[in-house]
Amino acid sequence: MYLPSFFVKQKFAMTTNRYELYAVGPDGNEGQLMGVAQQKRLAFKEEVTFYSDESKSRPVFSFKARKRIDLGSGYDIFDEAGAQIGFFRKDFGKSLMRSTFHVEGAGFTASGQERSQAVAILRRFTDLPFLSIHFDFVASEGTPLLSVDRQFKLRDRYTVQVPDQRVDFRVAAALAVGLDALMQR
């Protein structure tokens, strides 16, 4: 399933990280609800499950850490039936000064990092809440794959643009939520 752009909104919950995924409507605002994601806080092994709606009665995809300590490990992305459809990981060494991630899906591999080196450094040495996170992912052949842009809001809200039709919505959504959850925003 391909979706050229969507929003990820973090919702407040006491014991979990919750996210809502919305397609971008024709007017540029939130359109159809595409899913709801939930991550338990303080889990020994990171896992996020995406559901079809607020009732959380039907899980539709997920991502899960390969190992308990995730410094160089990674996260497998699974479809509703449990088949792997993608993978992403943080590049720990390159992320010391500028967060860098790698992602794989059907027919592509890509790397992405924070757009601004200056903002990346400021984020590491200050606790300024207005610093936004912007990631650009480029496919191995050099073409733009997707971008994730955080807007300045009380709760995190991201706009995800996916110009490459090879990128399954579930892989893009898992990566966008993973960026937020793993960077502890």
Automatic annotation (TrEMBL):
Task: Cite the Pfam families for this sequence.
Answer: LOR (PF04525)
Name the record gives this protein: Unannotated protein
**Species in which this protein is naturally found:** freshwater metagenome
